[in-house]
């Protein structure tokens, strides 16, 4: 697995990934992609089989009530995964590292995020990091970007009589 660290995150995360055994990981700043629009990043991410690590998760996966006009992973049938570090406002470099290490710990040594999203966020009341992993797209045989709720035949509406 190789991680591409988004420009909104600390440069150090690439080294954290390398030290964890993900030797081909890089920060997009070091790959000459600073300032690229999300759709341009997606072309490279998909072509080169990167697992993106970002803080701007709304731009890449559509949560309920997302304001994003074009979530990049919507409609992508096969991808190497997405890691969303949902850092609080004012997060420091050390927070970036802590969140990313929590993601790496969840993945383990042979982690595979193919068609999955892994999200990390701070549960402030209890002051701990929570990690959630889920399929995206959600293991449906059919996936329609215009209708993200489209599903396999089991969930499809019955044919007209």
Automatic annotation (TrEMBL):
Residues 1-61 form the DUF5615 domain. It holds the Pfam family DUF5615. Keywords: Plasmid. This is DUF5615 family PIN-like protein.
């Amino acid at each position: 697995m190789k991680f591409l660290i988004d420009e909104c995150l600390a440069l150090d995360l690439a080294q954290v990934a390398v030290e964890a055994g993900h030797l081909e990981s890089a920060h997009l700043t070091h790959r000459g992609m600073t300032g690229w629009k999300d759709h341009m990043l997606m072309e490279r991410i998909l072509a080169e089989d990167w697992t993106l690590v970002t803080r701007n998760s709304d731009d890449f996966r559509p949560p309920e009530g997302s304001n994003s006009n074009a979530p990049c992973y919507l409609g992508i049938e096969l991808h190497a995964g997405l890691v969303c570090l949902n850092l609080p406002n004012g997060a420091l470099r050390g927070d970036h590292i802590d969140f990313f290490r929590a993601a790496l710990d969840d993945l383990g040594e042979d982690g595979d995020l193919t068609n999955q999203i892994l999200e990390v966020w701070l549960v402030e009341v209890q002051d701990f990091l929570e990690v959630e992993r889920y399929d995206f797209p959600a293991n449906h045989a059919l996936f329609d970007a215009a209708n993200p709720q489209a599903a396999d035949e089991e969930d499809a509406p019955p044919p007209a009589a």
